[in-house]
Design brief:
Length: 416
C-alpha cells in the first residue's frame, strides 16, 4: 500500500519540477531582460544630469527588492494557509500587469511606483521551491532543489541577450511588453500543469511562526540559513555592477568591451547550469551542510585572486570557477531548509529566506559602490572574499550540532 502511494506521488512531483523549472526559467529571464537597460530607459524619461540619473536608477533598482523583503513574510503566511500554487499564480499574474505597465510609463515617478508594486507581487520562485520541497522524497531533495535552481540561473543568463536584441530592434519599452507576456505564459502553465495536494487551513489552525521556531530541531541552523542567504546574495550583487567596468580596465578601454563583459558576466551561470544538479546529488549523499561549507571556501578561494588578476583571461577563468561555488551555495541552503523545517511552515520560512535574499540584493551593490569609490574595483573582490570567509565561520558554528548528531548516528550504526 505504501509502495503504491509512493509510485502515485512520484510522477506528480517530477511533473511539477519540470513545469516549475520552466516557470523559474521564464521568471529569471523576465527580470534580467529589463535590468541591464533600466538606466538607459530612465534616460529617455526626462532630461537628467549624471547625479539624478544615478539616483533614479539606483532607486528604481533597489525599491523592487526592498518591497519584496518587507512583504514576503506576509505572502508566506498566506501560502501556508491557502497553498503555494495560488501564491505562484498571484505572483505571475501580478508581475504580468506591473511589468507590462512599465512599458507605458510617462515619467520616472510612475516607473518607480510600478517597480515597487512589482516587488510587492513577486514571490514565484520561493513558492515554487516550497511546492517541490513539500512533495519531493527526502532522499532526492538535494538533487531536486539543485535542478530547480538552474531554471532561474539559465533564465537570468539568457535574459540580457534576448533583451539586448529586442531593445536594439524595437526599443527599450518592447522588453517590458515581452517580459509581461512571458509572465502570463508562466501563469497559464502553472495554472494547468502544476498540481499541489494542499488542504487549506483556517487562521486559528495555523501554528504561529514563533512556535514553529520553538519546535524546530535545529533553530540556530535555520536562522543561520537566513544570514547565509543574505551574505551570499550581497557578495554576488556587490560584484555584479562592476564586472563590465573592471573588464574595461583590464582591456585598457579598447576593443569590444560590452561584448566581452557580457560573456564574462555569463560565465558563472554556464558552469552553474551543469554543476548544480551534480552538487545537489552529492548533497543527498554527504549532506547539504558539507556542500554549503565547501561552496563558501571555494568562493573565498576564487575571489581572493581576482584582486590580483592582470588580464581578461585570468579574470574569465576565475569567473568560471565562481559558477561552481554558485551551484553549491543557494541550492544547498534550500535543501537544508527542506530537510529541517516542517512542511506546514514551508511557505513562511521560505518567504523569510527570500526577504533576506532581497536585503542582500539591496545592500550588496551599495557596499560594492562604497568600496570601489574608497579604494578601487579590486577592493570589491577582496571585500567579497572576506564576507564569504566570515560566512564560513558562522556556518561552522550554526551546523555544529547537526554535524555532531550525524557523526553520533554514524558511530551508532557502525557499532551495531
Amino acid at each position: 500500500m505504501i509502495n503504491q502511494s509512493i509510485k502515485e506521488q512520484k510522477p506528480s512531483w517530477r511533473q511539477n519540477l519540470t513545469f516549475l523549472w520552466f516557470g523559474n526559467f521564464m521568471t529569471g529571464m523576465g527580470f534580467s531582460m529589463t535590468m541591464p537597460f533600466l538606466p538607459l530607459f530612465i534616460q529617455t524619461l526626462g532630461n537628467f544630469n549624471k547625479w539624478q540619473l544615478n539616483l533614479y536608477s539606483g532607486t528604481a533598482f533597489a525599491i523592487t527588492f526592498l518591497v519584496k523583503a518587507i512583504v514576503s513574510p506576509f505572502w508566506g503566511k498566506l501560502a501556508d494557509e491557502h497553498g503555494r500554487k495560488i501564491m505562484c499564480l498571484r505572483a505571475a499574474l501580478g508581475m504580468t500587469f506591473t511589468i507590462t505597465a512599465c512599458g507605458f510609463v510617462p515619467n520616472i515617478t510612475v516607473l518607480i511606483i510600478l517597480r515597487a508594486l512589482q516587488g510587492g507581487f513577486s514571490g514565484y520562485i520561493n513558492n515554487a521551491n516550497a511546492i517541490i520541497a513539500a512533495a519531493v522524497p527526502r532522499e532526492k531533495s538535494g538533487q531536486a532543489m539543485g535542478t530547480l535552481a538552474t531554471g532561474n540561473v539559465v533564465g537570468t543568463l539568457l535574459g540580457p541577450l534576448l533583451g539586448g536584441v529586442l531593445a536594439g530592434i524595437a526599443g527599450y519599452r518592447s522588453t517590458f511588453y515581452v517580459t509581461g507576456a512571458l509572465m502570463f505564459i508562466v501563469f497559464l502553465m502553472t495554472l494547468f500543469f502544476v498540481h499541489e495536494k494542499f488542504s487549506p487551513l483556517a487562521k486559528g489552525d495555523l501554528t504561529p511562526t514563533r512556535q514553529v521556531f520553538r519546535e524546530l530541531r535545529y533553530p540556530k541552523l535555520i536562522t543561520g540559513m537566513f544570514i547565509t542567504t543574505l551574505i551570499i546574495q550581497a557578495a554576488n550583487m556587490s560584484v555584479t555592477p562592476i564586472v563590465s567596468l573592471f573588464v574595461g580596465e583590464l582591456l585598457h578601454h579598447h576593443g569590444p568591451i560590452a561584448l566581452i563583459s557580457g560573456v564574462v558576466a555569463a560565465l558563472p551561470g554556464v558552469v552553474t547550469l551543469f554543476a548544480a544538479p551534480l552538487l545537489g546529488k552529492l548533497s543527498d549523499h554527504v549532506g547539504p551542510e558539507h556542500v554549503l561549507l565547501f561552496g563558501l571556501l571555494f568562493a573565498t578561494a576564487c575571489f581572493i585572486p581576482m584582486s590580483f588578476v592582470r588580464n581578461i583571461w585570468q579574470f574569465g577563468a576565475l569567473r568560471l570557477l565562481v559558477g561552481v561555488s554558485d551551484a553549491a551555495l543557494l541550492p544547498a541552503v534550500q535543501a537544508i531548509m527542506t530537510l529541517y523545517i516542517p512542511s506546514k511552515a514551508f511557505g513562511r520560512l521560505f518567504s523569510w529566506n527570500q526577504s533576506f535574499q532581497a536585503l542582500g540584493s539591496v545592500s550588496g551593490p551599495m557596499l560594492g559602490a562604497v568600496i570601489s569609490s574608497v579604494s578601487d574595483y579590486r577592493g570589491v573582490f577582496a571585500m567579497t572574499a572576506i564576507f564569504e570567509l566570515i560566512n564560513f565561520g558562522l556556518l561552522l558554528h550554526d551546523t555544529h550540532e547537526l554535524r555532531q548528531d550525524k557523526k553520533h548516528q554514524s558511530v551508532t550504526l557502525n557499532s551495531d
